[in-house]
Amino acid sequence: MTSTLLIVQFVLAIIITITVLLQKSSSIGLGAYSGSNDSLFGAKGPGNFLTKATMVLGLLFVINTITLGYIYNQNKLESAVDKVKTETLIPTTPKEETAPAAPVAPAAPAIPAEQSK
Q1: What is the mean pLDDT of each run of 10 residues along the chain (117 residues)?
Q2: I need a surface site. Which of 54, 61, 64, 97 has the fewest CB within 10 A?
Q3: Are the C-beta atoms of 54 and 19 separated by less than 8 Å?
């Protein structure tokens, strides 16, 4: 999902750049090529249409940016150590079955040093 949103982000950035460059400005820019009285949108239509399109694209761009930031922040909160399976890394020895222990005879009582002389 992150890669899809990232691709959408690049596409939106390119489309916003094109719509901004097509608008008329004080220095005309690329807007000189976009409209005349016989254009599809009329004499004033391209300006209003491009302005509204730029606003919508800008809003989509901001929403997509916030969504990407949220997703990356959630991924950042996860640690790489959390993803490691500890069962496979720590070798465990199988429990060996032991035979029941034979009864042990009680130890002989210690002889005091005075009696041994």
Answers
A1: 90 93 66 51 62 92 94 78 66 66 68 63
A2: 97
A3: yes
What CA–CA distances, in Å, run from 62 to 30, 79, 98? 25, 28, 68
pTM listed for this prediction: 0.51
Residue 36 identity: S
Signed CA dihedral, 92, 97, 103, 104: sign only: negative
Full 3-state SS string of the chain: CHHHHHHHHHHHHHHHHHHHHHCCCCCCHHHHHCCCCCCCCCCCHHHHHHHHHHHHHHHHHHHHHHHHHHHHHHHHHCCCHHHCCHHHHCCCCCCCCCCCCCCCCCCCCCCCCCCCC
